[in-house]
Amino acid sequence: MTTNGTRTAPSRGLVLGCGGTLGAAWMIGALHSLQQAVSWDLRSADVLVGTSAGAEVAAMLGAGIGAEELLAAQLAAGDSRPELVRHFAHPPRRTPPRPAVLLGSARLAGRALRGGVPALTGVSGLLPRGRGDAAWLAALADHLAPDGAWVQHPATWLVATDFDTGIRRLLGHPEAALRDALRASWAIPGWFPPVRIGGRLYADGGISSPTSADLLASRGLDEVYVVAPMSSVAPGRRTGLGRAEAVLRRVMTRTLNAECATLQAAGTRVIRIEPTVADLNTMGGNLMDPRRRLAVLERSLRTTRTVVRDRLRTAVPHPRRPDARQQPDLPRPDAQGAARISGTHDVEVLIIGSGISGIGAAVKLRQSGVRDVVLLEKADELGGTWRDNTYPGCACDVPSALYSYSFAPNPEWTRAFAGQAEIRSYLENTAATYGITPLIRFGTEVTRAQWHPHEARWHVETSRDRYTARFLIAAAGPWHEPLTPDLPGLADFPGEVFHSSRWRHDHELKGARVAVLGSGASAVQFVPAIQPHVSRLHLFQRTAQWVLPKPDHYVPHVERWFMRRFPAAQRALRTAEYAAMETLGVGFRHPSLLRAVQKVGDLHLRATVKDPQLRRALTPDYTLGCKRLLLSNTYYPALTRPNVSVHATAVESVQGNRVVGADGSSADVDTIILGTGFHILDMPIARRVFDGDGASLDDHWKGSPDAYLGTTVSGFPNAFVLLGPHLGTGHSSAFMVLEAQLEYVAGAVRHFRAADWASMDVRPEVQAAFRAEVQQALPSTVYNAGGCSSYYLDDNGVNSFSWPWSTGRMRRRLAQFEAAAYDVEFRKCGGVAGRG
């Protein structure tokens, strides 16, 4: 506005509506998006008005807590105020306690019958008096206003409804103490009791209006920002409890329409922010369900950014952000789609690795119209883990029909669970069939990949050449680099030492004395294969494993002919196997359901191991599924043979030819085979990929790998990680996870090209919200609650590996790329148009 020829800041009001626990979470995501889009601090609004859940947030803003700090507290970030973290982490239960046998307010119901108040307000009077405990609100009030008075922003008003008359009241200082006003504004009829203030009983302000924005019409404000969780311009179709919630939402939307019209008639610009259909679907029908809190927040961070921008464009001029920086010009692409840099190979997409992830990514991108793709492979052949692992007995523990690309079914599998050689052959044939093999640069190891923001390109140094690329895809995989234990004396062992993934086929095991360190997925397969040939085998087992019978069998020619002749039959088999594994996955999310499966494992052990002492050593002391589930029909029988000794202990040291266990047991051997797994979460590739400031991916992760939807990492634009953090499952196929990711990656690249972006970088708050959502869901799964220590846990003791939901949910989450989750830079002729 302009006064006496001098331009001054407009007067503003910020109105926060009702919405329960989930409405508050959505609101904080919306406030974060709003704060990023405007040049003024939301805490500096001339007037703050809050209703119910909005009152809770308004009080925090009025106490000087900004949108960023509110978001951090919702996510329980390490530097957040513990009082706020506790407040958000312990909301009311999702269902009300048993109410009192007492009508809420007969007077209020009577006024509704006479037409004196809206029907919704009157119905609230018919509900019984609630008995809910609002102690969590009182504790918040005591933190925000320790002196028992009010927050520091004097024009912070909390809306409550007079429970006798139905009249809305703006509660503030000095007529009300903060703890009373907060409890009154949140006093949902039937859930919490009304609150007495100044001799009057007050209940939730939301029973009269979703926001009470019209109460600001007489204040002559230039702008009013209305954040309304209980309003929606497109509520969509709902079922069950959601249908009742949708009816309530329609009523409140009509009320808000009228209130906004009142403000506009008074000459006030109204910026109205409300949930999208996607937000409503995430919220569900019960807005008090705390289990959905982080999912709602994460969704809000993605959707409200676009909503805020659209509303600001149509309602008020979009102000330039104070921290906006001019970006350098970007080179325009040439006819091949890339700016050429002398002395380098420039491509659109550079893929690191040529295992199942790299091959799948190349096929998917080429099917999406991206032709300029190169794969860098440090070995001389493709295949990834199925090239490297050639130990005796190496095979897949996922059914063959499911362990393959959906776009390249293989009717020629000779076993129900394919062996290593057959899987590797399948990958080679797929790469050749889809024209991927010529795109692979063999013998080319990536030594450093760094983002160059001024060019919006990745610069990649290798053992042979240099490359620049618009997109970088890390497809090295988690089962790639062998993990060698740091044992005293191991380096001085006079015999042969090798890891199972680097099998020494030239080393003769016949008649050898062998120590096997580890009893995981690899050892379960190679121990039975080598046991008949060695003179003595000592298995050092730190932790017993759950081993189930393996339903493997030879696939006869007639069945393979049938699969070739009728492809639908193979698709049906794949679907059936997927359904069976997803059924097992339900137990991983609800461990009590795994008892029947665990019983199968126990019976398998009892049937094959008769020695009680050996059986005790092989019996796990944790819930099945806490560690990787193992399948074998030969492992237990091999351990009962006379030339095998099981040492139920970790290895403490190697002294000459002697392997010494932590329990004091020892074995003299001439060969040590390490079945000690891989660098799953501390992937070496993370130490070779750097952001624009020179910090590595490993530096960013600090021991706890993290990626939005397991695929993109904030600070690393135009880069994707395949089979990344948070996507591991204990029951399904890596191909199912991979193809879900590839759908997302292809969608991102298509969107990038169509919008003529220069770069895309996932917003850090979106990534943090997703991680918090995952971590909230994990404690009840068998991965965290099963009572074991596994490779699912990172260096900080955090489960950064597992996906805590079904793969169906994973596929839905990754099915569509959402641009709102990303900060982007746009191109135009001559350089960068700006940030988005």
UniProtKB/TrEMBL annotation:
Gene3D superfamilies hit by this protein: Cytosolic phospholipase A2 catalytic domain, FAD/NAD(P)-binding domain
Motif (GXSXG): 50-54
UniProt keyword Lipid metabolism present: yes
Intervals of motif DGA/G: 204-206
Alphabetized UniProt keyword annotations: Hydrolase, Lipid degradation, Lipid metabolism
PNPLA domain ranges (all copies): 14-217
GO BP annotation list: lipid catabolic process
Active-site residues, as the UniProt record annotates them: S52, D204
InterPro entries membership: Acyl_Trfase/lysoPLipase, FAD-bind_Monooxygenase_sf, FAD/NAD-bd_sf, PNPLA_dom
Residue ranges of the region described as Disordered: 311-339
Keyword Cell division among record annotations: no
One Pfam family per UniProt: Patatin
PANTHER family attached to this UniProt entry: FAD_NAD(P)-BINDING DOMAIN-CONTAINING PROTEIN-RELATED (PTHR42877:SF4), L-ORNITHINE N(5)-MONOOXYGENASE-RELATED (PTHR42877)
This protein's name: PNPLA domain-containing protein
